[in-house]
Amino acid sequence: MMRKIIYSPIWLILFLLLLLVNGVTLFMLTQLISSEPSMKEHEQTTAINHSSSNYILLDEETVSKYLISDDPNTKLSFEDHHIIIQSKTKVYGLNVKTQIDTVPSVSQNGNLILKVKDISIGQLPISQKQQLKLVKKVGNLPKDVSVDIDNEQFIYQLDALKFGKNQLKLKTINSKNQWVFKLMLKE
Predict the structure, then answer these.
(1) Bridge partners of 153?
(2) Core vs surface per residue 44-68: b (16+ CB within 10 A) or e
(3) SS3 for 59?
(4) HSE of 163, CA atoms in CB hemisphere, 13 A
């Protein structure tokens, strides 16, 4: 009985049909993979306006790759839309670890504002303002960074970043936590 089913001509026809479909599919797939990619030409429907403003949006992950400190004892990182500053400093011969949790924003003139949410210098049980005074007095801050103790924030005077003849200027950080840069092209 089983032999009759196996040797039935319908099974042979179905097998050959399946073999043919697999062969055609394999042939088409190899042709698709090995052929040159085709480039479609599109007509430019709008003229380029050189006087218009160009903006670049960068997410925090991309910006974090460029958060580099000149000081090897200082590490900058993003965590939950905050910039965390971790530092090791020698004060009176002792290694002191500092961690500052800040929220970034941009001022009207393009300076980066880092609003301090939390700060800890070693195990010092002093207020946040006193710790900021200590950072201002003893900390090894970059020349472009100042401390606004009254508003509990760091101000980074951010000049336009130069890339060849072109420049990028930080404009804002939007509600999606994307950093918006204005692209200024030199012609």
Answers:
(1) 115, 148
(2) eeeeeeeeeeeeeebebeebeeeee
(3) coil
(4) 8
| Positive or negative torsion for Cα 144, 145, 150, 151 | positive
**Residue-wise pLDDT tens for the chain (187 aa)?**
556 666 667 777 888 889 999 999 888 766 665 555 443 444 433 333 334 468 888 888 888 777 776 678 888 888 888 999 888 877 677 788 889 999 999 998 888 999 999 998 887 788 899 989 988 888 778 888 999 999 999 999 877 778 778 888 888 888 888 888 888 877 6
Structure pTM? 0.65
What is the four-CA torsion angle of 138, 104, 172, 177, rounded to 10 degrees? 160
- The reported pLDDT for the residue numbered 53 is 60
Q: What Å distances lie between residue 129 and 5, 141, 147, 153, CA to CA? A: 89, 17, 11, 10
**Token pair belonging to 121:** 């210098």
H/E run at residue 27: helix 9-34
Contact 158, 110 (CB under 8 A): yes
Q: What is the DSSP letter of 46?
A: S
Cα(115)–Cα(178) distance, rounded to whole angstroms? 17
User: Of the candidates 113, 114, 138, which has an alpha carbon nearest to the alpha carbon of residue 124?
Assistant: 138
Strand partners of residue 167: 162, 184
